[in-house]
Amino acid sequence: MSEAAPLLASLAPLLTEWLPRQRWFAGKGRPIDGLTPVAATELTPGLLHLLVQVRARTHQPTHTPNDCYQLLLGIQDVLPPHLSPALIGRPADGPLRGRTVYEGLADPRLAALLLERLRVPGRLGPLRFSREPDAEIQPDLTPRLLGAEQSNSSAVYGETYILKLFRRVGPGTNPDLELPRALAKTGCTRVPAPAAWFEAELPGTLPMTLGVLQPFLAGSADGWQLALGALSVQADFTASARALGHAVAEVHRALAEALPTTVLDRPQLERLAAAMTRRLEVTAEAVPALRPYRSALRDAYDELAALGRDGQTRRAQRVHGDLHLGQALRTASDGRWSLIDFEGEPARPLSERCRPQPVAQDIAGMLRSFDYAAAVGRAAGTDWAERSRAAFCEGYATVHEDPREDPGLLRAHETDKAVYEVLYEARHRPDWLSVPMSAIHRLAGGHRATGVHAP
Ligand SMILES: Nc1ncnc2c1ncn2[C@@H]1O[C@H](COP(=O)(O)OP(=O)(O)O)[C@@H](O)[C@H]1O
Ligand SMILES: O=P(O)(O)O[C@H]1O[C@H](CO)[C@@H](O[C@H]2O[C@H](CO)[C@@H](O)[C@H](O)[C@H]2O)[C@H](O)[C@H]1O
Q1: ipTM score here?
Q2: In this protein, which residues make up the domain named Maltokinase N-terminal cap (predicted)?
Q3: Which DSSP category does 135 fall into?
Q4: 371 CB less than 6 Å from ligand 1?
């Protein structure tokens, strides 16, 4: 790291100021205490790939204080005006003194060079570039950076491919590479299959997934946009929700085929309930509005633990892990639903995200999403969400077991998801905190999770 140290020292003041303003930076609201270089690689002259460990000052509950981030920095003497929104700054000293440093992915020329690098398998310093042998990646596709509010950053190439660059990275294969690859091998076509990816191979740790290139579903719209569109004209969404439930169940079936499954018995159900309870406690510490509901919400987790004590077991398998309407894309041409973004909840440690879970975790995520859409689309108080949720479960039940037949499990997962959302909104979109809080209110009142009644 000796050569990276002076480079990072010269960039540190700029990055310390710039990082907390990025949507994908997990440690918002906390001053950065220091940056440590992990690796620096010149991808091409004027494009620097950096892995940096960020030390943040306070102890936020759901992520480690020493997160490692991936940065792609463009370096030029003078930044052309069209790139000025991407400016990070001009180092005052060190090897980059007087040069202009900017967000590299925003520069189509540099983004194009990155695609070129991905087309050819091989190594560059600690970086390894890989490709599915039968994937044909055309050259010279015009890139554009997605402007979406994202946990990571993505560039679309000629409406043909999308490259997702993971921002907060760590040792081990990211499930957003692992699961889509495993699904592709089963022949499941509900998830775009990775065509190429790159990793960092650093001494003494597992390879870190840094980016994945996959087919871009051109002309698709995500479920969140579609649901809000339907709500804006007071249209029913049950046909779409039913088809989505069917698609999710197909993906679950393929995941269970492709990757190990397990059975949760008493200790494991108790451990799952304990983990949910911990998350509730930690979130209540961080978000005072949650505190009055603590004991009522714990009932749902106690009920989950009681299943194990009654001698019951539940199946667990790899799941999506952060399923919501925004992770489902429907193509206009054939109305087919696909699922994306298998990374799991960004705040959870990788080991936890890769652990088999009851499929109820994903189902609860999607059910919560209908509730969100109804709240944001001003349909709270109507039966829009309830009907959509019921239709989703019906569609799911055409392939897999009906999730409504296990109301205790579903309620625990929906409660856990709503608690996660409380922390997510408090941290990222405080104006939206009331959305999960109204679900918390409902769930704490003892209503069943789906709003559709168990048989
Ligand atoms: N294969 C794809 N085809 C079309 N659009 C996609 C595809 N993958 C992702 N997107 C778009 O990019 C956005 C961000 O992708 P996602 O994987 O959810 O990233 P993040 O983890 O940063 O949220 C999605 O909301 C979707 O609009
Ligand atoms: O960025 P990711 O897609 O990984 O997911 C995070 O951000 C989501 C918001 O963009 C957040 O989802 C929550 O808000 C959605 C509406 O914007 C709603 O449909 C979801 O049901 C709700 O959970 C997600 O939780 C978070 O991990």
Answers
A1: 0.98
A2: 18-107
A3: -
A4: no
Exposed/middle/buried for 272, CB within 10 Å: 0-12, 13-18, 19+? buried
pLDDT at 32: 87
Any atom of ligand 2 within 6 Å of the Cβ of 372? yes
For residue 15, the surrounding DSSP H or E stretch is helix 4-18
pLDDT (0 to 100) of residue 346: 78
Distance, CA of 81 to CA of 402 (rounded, Å): 56
Q: Whose CA is nearest to atom 12 of ligand 2?
A: 324
Contact of 210 with 164, CB cutoff 8 Å: no
pLDDT band at 59 (very low <50, low <70, confident <90, very high): low
* 26: its two tokens: 């997990």
With a CB cutoff of 8 Å and minimum separation 6, the contacts of 337 are 190, 223, 243, 244, 247, 328, 329, 330
CA distances from 270 to 26, 186, 345 (A): 30, 33, 21
Region 376-401: what's the mean pLDDT? Answer: 95
CB of 345 within 6 A of ligand 2: the answer is: yes
CA distance 230 to 374: 10
Does residue 143 contact residue 165 with C-beta atoms inside 8 Å? no
DSSP 358-369: -THHHHHHHHHH
SS3 category, 257:
helix
Q: Find where tokens 């290139």 sit.
A: 213
Q: For residue range 320-332, what is the model confidence (pLDDT) as tens digits?
A: 999 999 999 999 9
| pLDDT tens by residue, 123-171 | 999 999 999 998 989 999 999 999 866 889 999 999 999 999 999 999 9
Nearest C-alpha neighbor of 391 from the set 363, 358, 413: 363
Q: Which of 192, 210, 189 is nearest to 50 (CA)?
A: 210
Using DSSP, state whether 227 is helix, strand or coil.
helix
Residues whose CB falls within 8 Å of the CB of residue 250, separated by 6 or more in sequence, listed in order: 188, 190, 399
The pLDDT of residue 60 is 52
Q: Structure pTM?
A: 0.93
The pLDDT confidence band at residue 28, using thresholds 50, 70 and 90, is low
pLDDT tens digit sequence for 6-19? 888 899 999 999 99
Quote the tokens at residue 93: 């000293």
DSSP class of 141: P
Query: Residue whose CA is closest, atom 9 of ligand 1?
Result: 340
CA–CA distance, 253 with 258 (Å, rounded to integer): 9
Tell me the H-state helices in 27-98.
Answer: none
- Give the other-Cβ count within 10 Å of 150's Cβ: 15
- Does the CB atom of residue 222 touch ligand 2 within 6 A? no
